[in-house]
Amino acid sequence: MPESDSEKLKLIGGRPCLDFMNTVDAHEPEPSGERLIGYRELVAWNLHARLLTRGSAARLAEAGRAAPQHGDRVLRRALRLREALYRLFLAAIEKKDARRGDLVTLNSSLSQALAHLALVPTPDGLVLDWPSDDLPLERVLWPVARSAADLLASPEDVARLRHCAGDDCDWLFLDQSRNRTRRWCDMKDCGNRAKVRRFYAQHRSGRKN
Question: What is the pTM of this model?
């Protein structure tokens, strides 16, 4: 598959569902900086996040090209799922009640994902996964829905859920630092920008004084 922008994204969320949130720069009031501009990019991101094998990704990309309207429907569903998950995660961070409609959106994808889940043999034994011969176009949504449900059902994970402190960043991540003090999605990006802004603010303040 040719490279797409979705394959260049950093995977720093700590869970697949959080990395899925980070396929856009900002969620509200409207998504901006969108990377998932087509079904092909959705498949490419799944491959990048190691949620698909290269062979399965190639087959899904080809199936999407053969049925573009179906692929477009799956993409729209993926984007609805992503925004519903973002609101669910924010509600969890802020200790607010989840919106019923957002839970319905997640549960719809989750029920389909679980209906196709099976024990699959691997060199290391049997694992719960989706068989490689079961590849409807919706397959790209299943690992995201399962990951999100596992996170939201885990009080320990919810307690570590964070929203990046960057002024212009909407990315989410699990704080797995020992003291639970991580503030930035990536210290090299948002953390450094914040340090630079503080430096210039202090410098200007010193000049005025």
Answer: 0.86
